[in-house]
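This section describes the prediction task in plain terms. A model, or a person checking by hand, is given the sequence of a single protein chain and must write out its three-dimensional structure as a string of tokens. No templates, partner chains or ligands are provided. The sample shown here is typical of the held-out split.
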Amino acid sequence: MDSMWASWKRALQAAARPSGWAWCFFLGIFLLFWPQWAMGEARVLGIRTWSSPSCTRVVVDLSEEVTFKEVSGHREAELVVEFKAVLARMEPVKKIQDSLVAGVTLSSTTNGTVLFKLSKKNPSFRHTAFLLPRVDGRPVRLVVDIENPSAGRMLQEKRKAIQTEKGAKAKVVVIDAGHGGEDPGAVGFRGTYEKHVVLAIAKGLQERLNQSKGVRAFLTRTGDYFLGLRQRVEMAKEYGADLFISIHADSSPNSSTRGASAYCLSLTGATDEAARILAEKENSSDLIGGVKLSADHDLNTILVDMVQTQTINDSLRLGGLVLGSLQTIEDVKFPSPKQAGFRVLKAPDVPSVLVEVGFLSNPEEEARLKNPTFQARLAQAMAEAVCRFLGMDAAQPVLVKESVKEQPKSLSSKESRVRSPKKEHVVQPGQTLSAIASMYNTSVRELKSLNHIQEPSMLRPGQRIAIP
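The expected answer:
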């Protein structure tokens, strides 16, 4: 036994010498097998699904990139994808309650591969399978999309029919709830997903606008599913939109950052670094969802079309009205809209604005943005701004600012009337009393009387003006 140990010791000492043959041998073995040791086997981490009106997406999360292939299924309506990986646990049949897919299973084979089996409800449904690398903290993903082409065409025809039927006086507003499905958007301090918050607000805005005479409002997405940015723009065009408003919620490494903001398209560059960074973040939605990005040839055609300049000017006016309305119920981060190259705002002849309703990274704002009552207030405020832009009357008045505390119940009715909170406007730098009066469809005389203003030229930034 001692002699055997001595032999091994001499071999190891020889390997340690750079000139020894054993050193070369062990180095060769290390280099040959190092990639497998470093990378390890791919593991299946989970499976998720989302359903839209014309497409179902199934995502398999993986620890490593894999090579996959489609193999023949037992039935015409069965899609089978094989890839080399290990199941962390046996996945049960995943039932999907939609019109395209009946179920999905994952199973291990004896040769170390995993079989992904999907049952289509109709063999004619198209499918696409592709692999997405790690991006924005997400794992490697095997994505399978099942599409019903006839349903997609039918929805497109319905959108185009709206444009044909709307008439000269009716106005069409397309409301875009940002992110969705695979892309949750910003994640709040306590785990709130942006995609859920903005969809609730978008639905509330649609409801209020549809109550306004002469306005028809439509959503780009009605549920939790992914849409590419260009697809959202195309939908607005198909509807013949007179206005496009994309609703988002922001996030910041600084949890104290707060306030709503509005953004419009810029053809020449961002107005500042913050707007540029936000545009890059919002534009990354396509990368997260697996959309193949192409060069922005649309900008080249837009640049030679003078109508785009007028569209951007109208967008800036709309953004200003939205901010003016929102500041009656919450803080506003910037007094006027910022500009950058947002892909979702590139409809050349449709005034478009992207609204960040607040910061989910701020615990206080996250709690407010999750609250259905506050979501309704945001929707109402934006509805008033949209109707003001379109020259129409909103269905209901803007609600009072939430930060005003309710009066104690012990107050008499007379005291309540005296101390009841009014709608407020916070004066921004450069604003005049006449501009504020125009914004709220009132007169300078009424504002002066209500606020006891003797000299309108003495307004100061930050001053609160009661609105009748």
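For orientation: The chain has a mean pLDDT of 80.
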